[in-house]
UniProtKB/TrEMBL annotation, chain A:
This is Trafficking protein particle complex subunit. Keywords: Endoplasmic reticulum, ER-Golgi transport, Golgi apparatus, Transport. Belongs to the TRAPP small subunits family. BET3 subfamily. The keyword Cell membrane does not apply. GO terms for cellular component: endoplasmic reticulum; Golgi apparatus. It holds the Pfam family TRAPP. Signal peptide: none annotated.
Automatic annotation (TrEMBL), chain B:
It comes from Discostella pseudostelligera. GO terms for biological process: vesicle-mediated transport. SUPFAM superfamilies: Ligand-binding domain in the NO signalling and Golgi transport (SSF111126). Keywords: Endoplasmic reticulum, ER-Golgi transport, Golgi apparatus, Transport. This is Trafficking protein particle complex subunit. The keyword Transport applies. Belongs to the TRAPP small subunits family. BET3 subfamily. It is found in: Endoplasmic reticulum; Golgi apparatus, cis-Golgi network. Its main location: endoplasmic reticulum.
Length: 204, 220
């Protein structure tokens, strides 16, 4: 199947057409949001939950942008996603590329084909970021190690896939900010939802 | 920029010395707009009034401004520190603007009525690209975040100032040949498909008295 090739080409084509903004401004803006959350909620676990919520709200909207722009460009991604493998390819190669300009890779499919990982070498959210070291008392290092700085991604993926009837759970399992070699987001399919348009919207 | 080789942020390269714009890394404007919209929504949910919301956005930008000052200053070739009022304003409206928004501010003007007030004008402010302010929020300027950044830069450089953002209606015939709206991406963030703007952003910079007296002393 050639979907691997197609997805990354589609991602590149869409990315080249997107109006751009400075990645540093983007990173700093996200940073100021996260610091505000850390100040307001104090508990890093709660901050993670808030970031996931915020991401979800972005996800439900950006999936629209992705599908409509892909449609205008004649890529017909909606029909291309026949299984979770295809969907994963589109999320990583089209989604991440189109919005953030970075290449993400897909891998680590489970035996039952219901979960996979997205690997991200460069994380545009975390430019300039350093988490305090474990045991750093002055900056509350032990506590802040629990912070998933880039948890926004999980929310975005969850929100975006929810709109196409895939209920998933996302988790950041590896994080370069914590010394891992790569950022890894684990996505697990929980349920394929029934078609969203309820009876209210059906024609009489 | 590979981050895997080194975990210490101070060992990483700071990127583009001299500010060649070809090396700049980008994300999509949409991605920025999504994040910014969430930032505004978050602060809106915690602010009781329009002015409090603007103040919150300003303080969110302030910290960014301090960092931007440092970053931009290190990247300029001369590593020069600006000590005069006019040069710091030029620094903000050209260097800082270029590094953040990919182009200079549209103009820098001195207030006629007040000697301590300057205006930086931007016809296509990035923060409010996709923003339409509902009537119940009246005078809200979604660019308050940017005014916070300016305040952070100025304060960090030792020029204490109060910076506020204002939406000002474009006058008839103003901004000719600017190619707003569908004019292509030359301006950095002119977005095809959205109507031309009716407002410009005016960032009003009001310097503290001690800054002005210091600058007057340097004049001699």
């Amino acid at each position: 199947m050639s979907s691997k090739m197609q997805a990354s080409q589609a991602g590149q084509a869409l990315w080249s057409k997107m109006p751009k903004a400075n990645a540093e401004l983007f990173a700093l803006t996200y940073g100021s949001l996260v610091t505000e959350l850390v100040r307001d909620y104090e508990d890093p676990i709660e901050v993670n939950a808030q970031l996931d919520r915020i991401g979800h709200s972005i996800g439900v909207r950006c999936v629209d942008e992705l599908l409509s722009k892909a449609d205008v460009a004649g890529m017909g991604l909606a029909t291309q996603c026949q299984n979770l493998r295809d969907t994963a390819e589109v999320v990583a190669k089209v989604g991440f590329k189109m919005f953030l300009g970075v290449q993400a890779e897909v891998g680590g499919f489970s035996q039952d084909q219901r979960s996979f990982s997205i690997y991200l070498q460069d994380n545009p959210l975390a430019t300039f970021v350093e988490l305090p070291a474990a045991g750093d008392e002055q900056y509350n290092g032990d506590d802040l190690r629990k912070l998933k700085y880039s948890n926004l991604y999980c929310g975005v993926i969850r929100g975006a896939l929810e709109q196409v009837n895939l209920k998933v759970e996302c988790n950041i399992v590896r994080d370069t900010l914590k010394g891992d070699e790569v950022n890894e987001i684990r996505v697990e399919l929980k349920e394929v939802l029934a078609d969203g348009a309820g009876d209210d919207y059906k024609e009489e | 920029m590979s981050r895997s080789s080194s975990n210490n942020i101070l060992d990483r390269p700071l990127g583009r010395v001299g500010g060649r714009s070809t090396d700049t890394t980008f994300v999509s404007l949409s991605a920025f707009a999504y994040i910014y919209s969430e930032l505004v929504q978050y602060h809106q949910s915690r602010a009781a009034s329009v002015s409090e919301l603007e103040r919150r956005l300003e303080s969110a930008g302030y910290g960014v401004g301090l960092k931007v000052l440092e970053m931009t200053a290190y990247r300029t070739k001369e590593m020069k520190r600006e000590i005069r009022l006019m040069s710091i304003l030029h620094f903000v409206s050209s260097s800082v603007w270029k590094s953040l928004f990919g182009r200079s501010a549209d103009s820098l003007e001195r207030s006629i009525d007040h000697a301590d007030e300057y205006m930086i004008i931007d016809y296509e402010p990035i923060a409010s690209t996709f923003v339409s302010v509902p009537t119940d929020l009246g005078q809200l300027s979604a660019d308050a975040y940017v005014s916070g950044i300016i305040a952070g830069v100025l304060d960090g450089a030792g020029f204490a100032a109060r910076v506020t953002a204002h939406n000002v209606k474009l006058e008839e015939g103003e901004r000719q040949g600017g190619g707003s709206g569908s004019g292509g991406g030359a301006g950095g963030n002119a977005v095809p498909g959205i109507p031309p703007r009716k407002n410009k952003a005016v960032f009003l910079v009001k310097f503290s008295p001690e800054v002005l007296s210091r600058d007057a002393a340097l004049e001699r």
